[in-house]
Amino acid sequence: xxxxxxxxxxxxxxxxxxxxxxxxxxxxxxxxxxxxxxxxxxxxxxxxxxxxxxxxxxxxxxxxxxxxxxxxxxxxxxxxxxxxxxxxxxxxxxxxxxxxxxxxxxxxxxxxxxxxxxxxxxxxxxxxxxxxxxxxxxxxxxxxxxxxxxxxxxxxxxxxxxxxxxxxxxxxxxxxxxxxxxxxxxxxxxxxxxxxxxxxxxxxxxxxxxxxxxxxxxxxxxxxxxxxxxxxxxxxxxxxxxxxxxxxxxxxx
Length: 253
What we know:
The protein is built from 6 helices and 9 strands, in the order ααββαββαβαββαββ. It is α+β, with helices and mostly antiparallel strands. The chain folds into 2 domains: 139 residues, NADH Oxidase (3-Layer(aba) Sandwich), CATH 3.40.109.10; 95 residues, NADH Oxidase. The strands form 3 sheets. The chain has a 4-stranded antiparallel β-sheet, covered by helices on one side. Strands 5-6-7 form a 3-stranded mixed β-sheet. Strands 8-9 form a two-stranded antiparallel sheet. α3 crosses α6.
């Protein structure tokens, strides 16, 4: 199985899927992993499959996606900012797990037909988005290629993610590796509203702009991605939750 770093580099938002359901054995592995994440996070993520054999799990707009999607993860959490951030953090952890299984994913916040599937939401919880799960088409249709190209043109440069008195080239290699991973991660409408602050050996993550109501999702995604990059560069550690949450290397945690 590929490493987390390899999964982070390989992952893209897949918008074209094969007409091929995910095998039940693989679905069982996904369910087990979701249960593990829920046990750690306290979130009620759910795996949703189609109502019958060969029936898609969700209806998606043909202008944005192609091919049927037979399974998705419902990213469910509370309405507060901490819950929103946890949805992003643990949702991205799930993305990396699915990528390591060879599956394609796409984080979808709103462009899906909510009436096309049923979902029992625990009291006080909301559906923040869905994570499509399937086998990526061998060749991306031209329309999807154009959508992806338009989105990626808006990408920020690596140095734009850093707030520091030092230049990007002057900060430690593990910080640069973490920022590279942040840039590679998904973001709602490609807003990328989270920055990494480096000051005298300390690192924290903060929101520098609004993100259409999903900025705390994006903050969680960015933190999980940074952890993957930092670990790849020999500095494993963990972020504290919250806007301004600090990164603690394992030796200090």
